[in-house]
Every structure is written in structure tokens, then in C-alpha cells.
Structure to design on (120 residues):
């Protein structure tokens, strides 16, 4: 585990079932649940189950099986919610400049309505 990983971050608590989430889909290595403060009609977070800090930590240190099943789950959620019919956006924030609030790697899936320009 990355020595900077905070085991008490909110997603670590969700993974330990210490706090609830609205689970959408899950596979062996990853889980998808609703964002508590949705920024679009559909706003779902997809996270790996193992403790990775951010995109770089995950991409560099996760096994190929974890990486593959993570992106497979992202696509499964896209199909499950049918956001691909009208279009969607996936975002991952990293670090201070990315304004990452929760230091456990996650992808935001946004859709269900027109999302506007990417950066206002
Ligand atoms: P980021 O700024 O990319 O780290 O995004 C963190 C996201 O986690 C935000 O969109 C929050 O609304 C969301 N969030 C925080 N706490 C929870 C929670 N308990 N359940 C679901 N989503 C959460």
C-alpha cells in the first residue's frame, strides 16, 4: 500500500461497510455507487477495492487484472445506466490542482443531461 494512503478516508470506510453507499454495480476488484452530491442527473463513482491514492498510483501499481476489471466496471455502469445513448463524461481528479477531495482513486461518471462545457 502507498505509504501516503489514509485508511480513514470516506471511500475506505465505505469499502469496510462502516458507512453505507447506494451501490449500483460491483465486480471482484471494483465497486460503483452513487455520488452523495450529484452534479448531473446521473453521477456515479467507480472505485477499485484496493487502496490506491489516485490515477497514477492505480495505473502504476495495480495488477493488469485490477486495471482491466476496473475499466470493465466503468463500461458496465455506462451500459447499465444507458448514458451512452445521449452521451456522458468521465472525470478523475488528482491532487491539489485537480481538487481531489477523497484520496482513494475514483472515476466520476456523469450523464443523463447536457453537461455543458468541460471547464467554465
Ligand atoms: P473528488 O473531489 O474527485 O475527490 O470527489 C469526491 C466525491 O465524493 C464528491 O463528488 C463527493 O460528493 C463524493 N462523496 C463524498 N462522500 C461521499 C459518500 N459518503 N458517498 C458517496 N459519495 C461521496
Amino acid at each position: 500500500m502507498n505509504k501516503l494512503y489514509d485508511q480513514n478516508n470516506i471511500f475506505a470506510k465505505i469499502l469496510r461497510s462502516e458507512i453505507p453507499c447506494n451501490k449500483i454495480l460491483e465486480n471482484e476488484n471494483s465497486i460503483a455507487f452513487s455520488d452523495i452530491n450529484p452534479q448531473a442527473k446521473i453521477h456515479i463513482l467507480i472505485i477499485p477495492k484496493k487502496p490506491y491514492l489516485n490515477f497514477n498510483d492505480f495505473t502504476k501499481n495495480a495488477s493488469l487484472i485490477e486495471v482491466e476489471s476496473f475499466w470493465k466496471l466503468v463500461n458496465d455502469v455506462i451500459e447499465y445506466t444507458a448514458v451512452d445513448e445521449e452521451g456522458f463524461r468521465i472525470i478523475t481528479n488528482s491532487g491539489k490542482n485537480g481538487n481531489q477531495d477523497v484520496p482513494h482513486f475514483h472515476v466520476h461518471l456523469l450523464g443523463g443531461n447536457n453537461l455543458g462545457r468541460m471547464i467554465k
About this structure: Residues 10, 19, 21, 35-37, 45, 93, 99-102 surround adenosine monophosphate (CB under 6 Å). The chain has one domain: 22-111.
